[in-house]
Amino acid sequence: MRPETLDNLHRILGDKGIVTGADVHEGYYTDPRGLGDVRPNVVLRPASTAELSQIMKVCHDTAQPIVVQGGLTGLVTGARPQHNEVVITMERMNGIESIDVKAGTITVLAGTPLQVVQEAADAAGMVFPLDLGARGSCTIGGNLSTNAGGNRVIRYGMTRDLTLGVEAVLADGTVINSLNGFMKNNTGYDLKQMFIGSEGTLGLITRATLRLYPKPKTQVVAFCAADSFDAVADLMAHMRTGLGADLSAFEVLWAKTYAAVLSDVAGIKAPIPQGHAFYVLVEMMGSDAAHDTEKFETCLGQALENELIVDAVLSRSNAEIDALWDVRDGMAHAMGKQQPSVGFDISLSVADMKVIESELLRRLQAALGDVRLFIGGHLADGNLHLVAKSLKEGPQPRDTIQEIIYGWVGEVGGSISAEHGIGLLKRDYLAQSRSPAELALMRALKLTMDPKNLLNPGRVFDMGTAPMAGNAKAPTP
Amino acid sequence: MRPETLDNLHRILGDKGIVTGADVHEGYYTDPRGLGDVRPNVVLRPASTAELSQIMKVCHDTAQPIVVQGGLTGLVTGARPQHNEVVITMERMNGIESIDVKAGTITVLAGTPLQVVQEAADAAGMVFPLDLGARGSCTIGGNLSTNAGGNRVIRYGMTRDLTLGVEAVLADGTVINSLNGFMKNNTGYDLKQMFIGSEGTLGLITRATLRLYPKPKTQVVAFCAADSFDAVADLMAHMRTGLGADLSAFEVLWAKTYAAVLSDVAGIKAPIPQGHAFYVLVEMMGSDAAHDTEKFETCLGQALENELIVDAVLSRSNAEIDALWDVRDGMAHAMGKQQPSVGFDISLSVADMKVIESELLRRLQAALGDVRLFIGGHLADGNLHLVAKSLKEGPQPRDTIQEIIYGWVGEVGGSISAEHGIGLLKRDYLAQSRSPAELALMRALKLTMDPKNLLNPGRVFDMGTAPMAGNAKAPTP
């Protein structure tokens, strides 16, 4: 960056708004995959939409690429600085702007941590239902730009579904204020959709108006065992019909994943003995304090009677609810402990979930010999997480494992990223889930909104001249 | 159109696929506002996505503008042919392609009537919850391209929220197949959002994969009277908290609207006498056959006790449910009977709804003398419908009424179109709800996806060189 550009940025942001050289600490280039290999020279810390607009004008005029950062908790290397990129952090644009209980809305700055939004909603007697493990450090801006999912998508939807309005700054500094607070607003194109889930490549989200919901009055959790995948699928349909809109989670652990949770995660007590094929956490959040538990028990009793499940434990207290969720959340910890290994976050049809373990083990073992596979996730959302690990000595054959698994996901028409996004990490496999025509249209939209390719360049897809489809690894036959 | 172009189109579509000259019947240029003043010379009737793609290539090569038609039930003159436009009707792309009860999805062709989709879902033991008066003739493609709302948005959302995947044909014939069937799919830009709610200006929707829900087990309706708007707003919060996700409708009629329903619509019996300020229909759709009615009664009893409502009638049978809904639906009929008059479909904050009647009557009467105003709608969605009528002899002063009402809506930050869209009818007022920067971005997106301005040209906004903001009528002070 030329000194006069730095001076311009300094004039806009003041001393507090800019960090350079040796003062740039590791927090600006570390994410869940570890310390990045590019230390940024300049970190910009705008305190307002106006400041962000002005610095983007400077960056646009000087063709300076930027990477935007929220809480740096993303799992696909989207926020790590690359060569020549200046960091724009949203850490000073942090706070609740307003809350309207009657309308059921909250307006927050993009750098606000998710947990702060949850707590503000709670204090107002409402609930902001987005929830994920990184709640304490991830930011709303990051949640929006990655369209975060989490544990209660089945009931409340993805971040996109929880968002009424967005304010964003375009690459040239233009402020797009679509801070709509209405559930219904058919006045031209719904521009907020451009910024949600596009991973910071089309604009920088600065504020959002989000939906709040009444607090549920009841919460009941069951942990069940089933002996076949068909039984699990039937249980899902049964609980959906029985609980209606009150079904709030349906989480499944494959047997080997359950075994790993019990053996590798400290402090987890088995609610049900091992020896079954599948373990399911079902949760209900209802509005009828007098009868919800009875409704849930009736529904679960029918499932036992119809042999959809062979064993079940029902929560009788908040402590027991927490203990059962600890088993489910132990899945992430157990998968994390398999390092070195290769992780996946995919969407599949129910029919493909049925065969995923046998099919992928067959393909992986044919190519790599002994392989372990840990599978589980948000079954009712169609979303599974999995970890594959070659038992051979030496570094994990990451490319081969990815080619085999993404190849199969592409073959069966699944999604290579259900909730984590693409970032840099999955970019080369995007064409497994999207057609050449779709990728060409994405590029055309990017070119329209960010003609100099300055916003998070290279994330999601590359703007290079090679046709997108050519970037994809060929699926392994 | 030149004869060789017509020949090309004929070759693609065959005899059944093209109607010209005197064979073009009035159905192709009549909508709820009556017979259009432009009779189209050519109507194209593609039977498949492939045929539509080929004819769009021809239209693109010859710069032939088109207007796309579903059921022609839209209320904003979006589907009426304009000079030089060729009609493309989706009437032959009609049918259910597949239904997957376990996944809760249905894939349908764009020309399928909404009611056919509802009935297919019902036959499979599920529900497709989008519902509006035109269900028998409106098509799914039209519902999607206008992001239709309807009566149960509070529980199930708008059409956008019910849509998982879309296939569409771009202006140049490119097929964008984003027929995703997953709730979670963060693989690059969510392109279906470009086609939903953009009123056919960015692409022609050919197929969609939609969400199905389990059938509710119970339905209970109450019709209530309240003596102040504050009481109505408190009732809404109370029922939301009390019924949680089971609250499926909260519809409000202002006193004069209720009076008009009772006096002007045949066959409506007053469930509650006149003399109150507001009348409210509350509906619950639940999953607990044993206890839902009790929960609803308890909730309503508290509302009576706390004097949020002063009278209430509860449905005791399906016939009574229908009769209470007839009163609510009578609102549309009563508003229709005020012709000549000027209709509106707006979103507002609860605070602005409280003053809408007094504020608009004051402004309208100052300009026009004696004026009648009929107000009511989906309060919990933030969406009101209203009809204004000058009592002076002669044609309605439509422009003045629109300027005053849209001017006020713009002033208070409301939306000039909650669910009907913009079309040609509201185009000149779009800038009351959207900023110059938003309108410029809309135009840039249109230019990218339809560079020759061939798809529904002039609907939503004009691509002319004048800045968009200049098109807006100035709000009346």
Describe the structure.
The structure is a homodimer of 477-residue chains. Chain A has 477 residues and is an alpha+beta fold. Chain A is built from 13 helices and 20 strands. In chain A, the strands form 5 sheets. Chain A has a 7-stranded antiparallel sheet, with helices on both faces. In chain A, a hairpin with a 4-residue loop joins strand 7 (96-100) and strand 8 (105-109). In chain A, helix 1 (3-13) runs antiparallel to helix 2 (49-61) and helix 7 runs antiparallel to helix 9. The longest helix of chain A has 19 residues, at 318-336. The N and C termini of chain A lie far apart (47 Å). Chains A and B meet through helix 5, strand 11, helix 7 and helix 13 of A and helix 5, strand 11, helix 7 and helix 13 of B.
Number of spatially distinct domains of chain A: 3
Helix content of chain A: 25-40%
Strand order in the sheet with the most strands of chain A: 17-14-16-15-19-20-18
Per DSSP E runs of 2 or more residues, the count of β-strands of chain A stands at 20
Assign the CATH architecture of the largest domain in chain A.
Answer: 2-Layer Sandwich
CATH class of the largest domain in chain A: Alpha Beta
Largest interface: A-B, 93 and 93 residues
Which structural class best describes the helix and strand composition of chain A? Answer: alpha+beta
Cα shape of chain A: globular
Rounded to the nearest angstrom, the distance between the terminal CA atoms of chain A is 47 Å
